Automatic annotation (TrEMBL):
Residue ranges of domain DNA mismatch repair proteins mutS family in the record: 696-712
InterPro entries: DNA_mismatch_repair_MutS, DNA_mismatch_repair_MutS-lik_N, DNA_mismatch_repair_MutS/MSH, DNA_mismatch_repair_MutS_C, DNA_mismatch_repair_MutS_clamp, DNA_mismatch_repair_MutS_core, DNA_mismatch_repair_MutS_N, DNA_mismatch_repair_MutS_sf
Official protein name in the record: DNA mismatch repair protein MutS
Record gene name: mutS
Family the entry assigns: Belongs to the DNA mismatch repair MutS family.
Annotated function: This protein is involved in the repair of mismatches in DNA. It is possible that it carries out the mismatch recognition step. This protein has a weak ATPase activity.
Keywords: ATP-binding, DNA damage, DNA repair, DNA-binding, Nucleotide-binding
Gene Ontology terms describing biological process: mismatch repair
PROSITE patterns hit by this protein: DNA_MISMATCH_REPAIR_2
Source organism phylogeny: Bacteria, Pseudomonadati, Pseudomonadota, Alphaproteobacteria, Sphingomonadales
Claim: RNA-binding is one of the keywords in the record: no
Keyword Phosphoprotein attributed: no
Amino acid sequence: MMQQYFALKREAEGCLLFYRMGDFFELFFDDARQAAAILDIALTSRGEHDGEPVAMCGVPVHAAEGYLARLIKAGCRVAIAEQVETPEEAKKRGGYKALVAREIVRFVTAGTLTEEALLEPRRANVLAAVCELRGTIGIAACDISTGRMELEECTPESAGAALARLGASELVAPEEWDAAPEAAVARPRHDFASDEGEARLKSLHGVATLDGFGNFTRAMLAAAGGLVAYLDHVGRGTLPFLQPPVARTGHATMAMDEATRSSLEILSSQQGGRAGSLIAAVDRCVTGAGARQLADDLGAPLLDRSAIEARLALVHWLHDDPLLRADLRGVLRALPDIGRALGRIVAGRGSPRDLGQIRDGLAEARRIRDFLSAKPDRPALLEALLPAMGGHGALVDLLQRALVPSPPTERSQGSFIAQGYDAALDELREISGNARRAIAALEGRYRAETGIAALKIKHNGVLGYFIEVPAKHGDILMAADSGFTHRQTMAGAVRFNSLGLHEEAGRIAEAGGHALAAEEAHFEDLTARVVEARLLIADTAAALARIDVAAGQAERAAEGGWCRPQITDDNSLAIEAGRHPVVEAALTSSGGKSGARTGSGERFVANDCVLSPDDRLWLIGGPNMGGKSTFLRQNALIVVLAQAGGYVPADRATIGLVDKLFSRVGASDNLARGRSTFMVEMVETAAILAQAGERSFVVLDEVGRGTSTYDGLALAWAVVEAVHSGNKSRCLFATHYHELSRLAESCEALSLHHVRAREWRGELVLLHELADGPADRSYGLAVAKLAGVPKAVVTRARSVLDRLEQARSETGGIAAGLGDLPLFAAAASAVHDERVDPVRQQLDLLDVDALSPREALEMLYSLKRLTTEREP
Ligand code: ADP
């Protein structure tokens, strides 16, 4: 057995091997250890190998799906080795001790799932392949749950942003490629051959040239080759559903790199989940397919004004007609996920239920088309979508006639083909129906004949049909001439057979077998018909998703009083009374934040942002917690929402198309990402300075904070100057460095703004309101007090501050230039003690995550000792 196991394990190429043994999938050796830890199941052992006990764990086959889901979530890939013959067949083949033959029947990997239970309904599941060809990067991506496929070529520098947009759950790359993304699964180099890729796509779609689908470069085709080869490998030769590829050029969508996406929390929050993200605050889609389309839209805002306007016009139409919108959403809500049902069917993993979903979804699509076609003033985008929703008359009709109203997920039991569809099948069912009735009649007859009222005819999987009487009556039927033959004696009952029962049961079994075979044949036939229509069905699914997105956007806009943005081709950005959708939603739902006192009470304070070529950089000061980050991000999010073709949380918005969006948060604000290093901050800032242009929008939050005050100020200063005079991008720059105000003197397109705060009866009141001009002071101490820093510490800080300010006035004013920052010279000496503080040094060196609880405790003791030693 071990020999067979090792052969399969080699074939599994690094995947965990699920080795079928009877009712269990067993895992051995390291696989077992890994799986047992992830699944929290018992690790046992079995036999010995090389003198060591073999570690083993197992999961029951009927519950395997749940365990698979958890393993996939934990980043594993799994190969399923099934028994491909029965023990009887094995015996026949190889004698009494023959081993049942096993084969890997499929691989389960994060990027190649189709099972409803393993997929998230509102998230696309992307598999991507990436490779390099003569200095350019090719990327191929698909979502096999719906068949979508796209190819992209980019430079090595922009590859990161392209992959970030895709958010693939699994990535493959050629082996031995130095620049391969860390998480990528290594695949043979020869899989990534462009001619092979091209040939595969051509044969897949039955075309002589791919030109009809778009312009594909060699790098794109090489990546496509790698992708299809991997799918082939994982599917053991059966390819999943792939629609014709779409070529994506970097110029069609707004560029956003990984850091920008994560800092703006577009599809997931920095904590990792959907909660707290932009999409969670915006998504009002009523179908999973709509939600997936919306995620796609928000992840790839458009650059083409007319395409954006087309989407906006549809949202507008639905926004202005609440009754129509409500009706439409009501119907959409009931739609099955036909895109994913189709994905399963084409991949050969479809069920009768999936066919039923296709039937219902297509029928519903036709009704929606009829309903919308009757409405006046339809926007152009809708007109373009409607034809895709009605072309399936014959198929819908066929499926409606063929299938029962709610077909089961299990196909081996039959009972999914409707009465009246196939006369021969009906006859077989009639025969078994009659036989069942005959058996029921037999029961009555036998009771009368034997006088045993408790006699029953029963059925189970082992014996089939049998007659059962309580033990005390057993003798009556045991009599030689009773006509009954004994089959089994139980504790309280005896079981018999009879000639009559045997015959009727035979009829049922035979008719049942034929009926099952007939249903199976129909299933194959119906599946083939659906597969034939796959591209049209995929179009229908896409059209419905697009309509759902628009209706959801309209709903969200109506709910929040959002406006339709004006899109222009110039470099302006004018947002009146803008709001942050996530922060606003959080305030509304919690009924306002407790704790910190805000001048706004419980409500979100709307703010304007007006940038133009000669006032393109806003430097925003004001106290911590004053609302700077919120303001920065809300404007970036409004741009994303607008260019994704939706309404925006503002009273009015004019948006000059943004080609690249950058958002960065200074290192110390960024601890949650677990990359606290100042290095990361600078790498990210460098990327902006290298890439941002006049059409870009840059949002920088406290950049320069992750290092000493002195360096930080200097860097912030230089970065602002560079963005202002070099990149010339529209930019919002939040800082608590007061001194940066001086930049207004040398940078003509820079203006000063601040979030307002007031001290009232010794308490700080944050107004969250943006005002013109520099912040009058930093309010740092007031914020510290608000945050509950002990009074003694605040008082001490106040006295240090006084000394600093005194030093400042003595040296005659604040920073006159970067070479000469007297304030900081004074500050350096005033806080000198703090710099060499041994406790602080210890803390700086500490890697908290690396400590065991015991080490942590010891560290605390040692820190405590240090402080007591220092105390006079
Ligand atoms: P800063 O960047 O200035 O430190 P934040 O933008 O992080 O401040 O805001 C701190 C908190 O203040 C937010 O979490 C939010 O609860 C609240 N806040 C920010 N802006 C507003 C606003 N415009 N209206 C109401 N509350 C706001």
